[in-house]
């Protein structure tokens, strides 16, 4: 996906991953992805494509089952949320320390 498009069709995404368009539609439904619809066509964003890439990697490269991939994605999302919380706390602590140093 080298061009500067904002949205990509199911066929373009399938071509990018070298899989059938039906596989993209199946993953979209199975993983309950919220893909924008324009008319009758799906409009995938780069974020959607990254998410599909992660799903395809789990299923096709790491040999997870559908259920295993769902659990892994949920686990990764939980870990990312925890990391964001820790970063936020550290930033707040840094602000406090900078203020204390200034006083």
From TrEMBL:
GO terms for molecular function: DNA binding. InterPro entries: DNA-bd_dom_put_sf (IPR009061), MerR-type_HTH_dom (IPR000551). Residues 8-74 form the HTH merR-type domain. Gene3D superfamilies: 1.10.1660.10. One of its GO terms (biological process) is regulation of DNA-templated transcription. This is HTH merR-type domain-containing protein. Transmembrane segments: none annotated. It comes from Jiulongibacter sediminis. Pfam families: MerR_1.
